[in-house]
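Quick sanity check, Alpha/beta hydrolase family protein:
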Amino acid sequence: MVVSRRAANGAPSSAFIGAVRAAIALLSALLTGVLAAIGVASLVAARRVVTPAARVPDTRILDLDTAAQTITLSRTPDTELPGRYGLFTSGTSPYLKLGSVLAEDAGSVKRKLLTHVADSARLSSEAAFSGWYYGGPAELQLAYHDVTVRTALGPAPAWLFAGGDHADTWVVQVHGRGTTRAECLRAVPLFDALGFTSLVVSYRNDTEAPRTRTGTYTLGATEWRDVDAAVDYARTHGARRVVLMGWSMGGAIVLQTALETRHPELIAGVVLESPVIDWRIVLDYQARLNRLPHAVTGLAIGALGSDWAAPVTRGAIPFDRLDVVARAGELQHPVLILHSDDDGFVPSDASHALASARPDLVELRVFDTARHTKLWNYDQERWSDSIRAWLRRTGISAPADADS
C-alpha cells in the first residue's frame, strides 16, 4: 500500500502524518531499547570490575599421565611459558605445581608435574593456570607466625616472617585482585635471605580480611587504609623502615598507601610487580580484549566514577586520584617497577609513562614474554637480581647484603 503524501488541497494527508508518527515512535522505542541495553551492559561491566571474582578457568587438562607424572594442557600464551607455575582445578587434587615444558604442538603443552598425583586422582578438565606456585607459608620452610592487623573494619589476618640481621627493615606484601595473600609468598625467600622481615597481609573484601557492607573493591581507593594499618603494625613491632610491595591491583593499593600514609617517613621504597598504575588504561584494554563496545566501557567507567556507583561501591571511585601518572609529582619514595610488555591483562603503558614522568625516583625493569604476575616464575634469577640491585642502589640494603 502506498500512503499519499498530499491531500487534495496540497496539505500533508492524515495517513502520511500518521505513518511518520508511527515511524518516529518505532525509532524512539528502538533507540530507547538500545540505550537501555547499553546502560544495563555498562552497569554489569562496572559491577564485574569491583566484585571479587572466583578463579576463572583459562585452560583445559587434555591428558594426565600418573605413571610419568606429566600433564598435558591446551596451549595458551600462559601455559606455554617456561618456568614453574601452579594449576587450579577441582577434584581430588585441586592445586598442582607444574614444572618445565616437556613437549608441545600447535594445540597442547605437556609439562612435568611437581606435585605427585596418585593413580586414583580425578581432576576436572577445566583449570586455571597460575603464577602463585606456593599454596601456603609452610611450603617455604621458613619460620612464620599467624598475626592480626587491626584495621578500621576489624582484624585482618597476616603472615609474619621474622627477619635476621636487618629485621628492622620490613617488607609489606600486598596481593592483587581476585587472589589472596598466598600470591605474594614467592617474594618472601628473597627478602628473608637479606635479613628483612616480611609481613604478608590481607585487605578488605579479599575473602580473608573483614568485609564491607557491599563486599566490593574500590580498586585501591579505600583498601590502602588496611595496608597503612599494616605499616602501623610494623612500626609498633620494631620496624624502622618499610618497603611496600604490590602485585597487580596490589600495586595500585601500595601506591595509594605511599601517597596517603600517616607514616611517610617510615616508607623506604616501593616495589611493583605487574602493577595497575592507571585504572582507566586497564579497563579500556580489558574491554577491547573482551570486544565490548566503546560506549559500554565509557559508561561503565563513568558509572564507577560517579554517584551511580553508590549502590555497588557505596561511593564514586576517584579515578583521577588513582591515576598515579597524573600524580607523579607527589611521589616521595623510590619505586621499582617490574612489568612485562606482553602482560596480557594489565598493559605496561602506564608503567612506562610513570618511569618517564619521574626518572629521578622510578626505575622500570621490562620483561618481554613473562605475562601477568608471572615474572618470578618465568625468570626467577633476573627477577631477584633486579630487586637486589635496586635495594643496593637505593641504600635500603648494603652492597654485601644485596649480593647475597
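Posting the structure with no commentary besides this: The chain is about 30% helix and 20% strand.
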